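Quarterly update, task 2.4: adenosine-5'-diphosphate-bound model.
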Amino acid sequence: MDLPAYAIEAEGLFKTYPATKTSPEKRALNGVDLKVPRGSIFGLLGPNGAGKSTFINILAGLTRKSSGTVRIWDRDIDVRPRDARAAIGVVPQELAADVFFTPRESLEVQAGFYGVPKSERRTDELLRALGLTDKANAYVRQLSGGMKRRLMVAKAMVHQPPVLILDEPTAGVDVELRRQLWSYVKGLNDLGVTIVLTTHYLEEAQELCDHIAIVNRGEVVVSEPTATLLRRLDIRNVVVTPEEPVLSAPLLAGFETKLRGGGAFSVSYRTGQSSVEQVLAALRAEGLHIKDIATEDPDLEDVFLSLTYGDPAAGDPTRD
Ligand code: ADP
């Protein structure tokens, strides 16, 4: 059988949560097009509320899309929902531990749930791969947080899915455990498993992922190999407090500007292309008198800003 070029393909994906008594309808996905190359470690990044969980829940069959198409491992989720679901394992955000089971039992139950025949179960192998052999027969409540998380990865893998999805796997996990978890994830990837993970730690994505998509307000702002994306990260901000507070960010030739609080504004520039001196020169050329000036390192926010700059779609997607 030919392997698909893409582990996941979404086209024109929309999701609107209907209005309830207490809240208006909410468009969470606003035409998502995304292709996850087979064999990649794919980072899905975005601020809270961007639509990451909605996207993952649609893949996992937990949320119904409003429109659009999704193929997982070449299986359309509308046409072959069961086959599509069988192709992914999802590690949810919350640590939902089965306190009454041991890790071994927990994996057996999960395999049963997926209809994996006893002869094809890989419980011992998974326990070993996730470093849980010593704790195979301990009660789950006796496991540390990191062990519980590894157990959840193992549970997501009982049916040997070619695609593993991790939703914020390291939120609240300390550095040491994070490293451990990453090495397991990398190991799985080396074995050919395509990994999709959501995170809002840019650093984490940078280190682990070979492809990154940034989602903002229900849309994919960018999706490209990490190396390509990082070349966009040569952005620096200079925050300028002028003598005379401004009400709108002044236009500066060759620079992007943005209003900040208190009559200040920021100017962003690319380190490869210009310098603070050039920013200062441009400010002087505009006749602006500067009271205070400070530089900022870029963060994910800046990448969003630079990628959504001047884009009317960066408004509220529910507004149109
Ligand atoms: P993320 O995972 O990136 O934080 P979500 O997919 O959870 O984003 O949320 C996207 C948007 O959809 C948010 O505005 C959120 O409030 C809204 N949303 C998420 N789940 C529901 C739901 N079950 N009902 C109504 N609105 C929801």
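Highlight for this quarter: Residues 67 and 214 are 21 Å apart (CA to CA).
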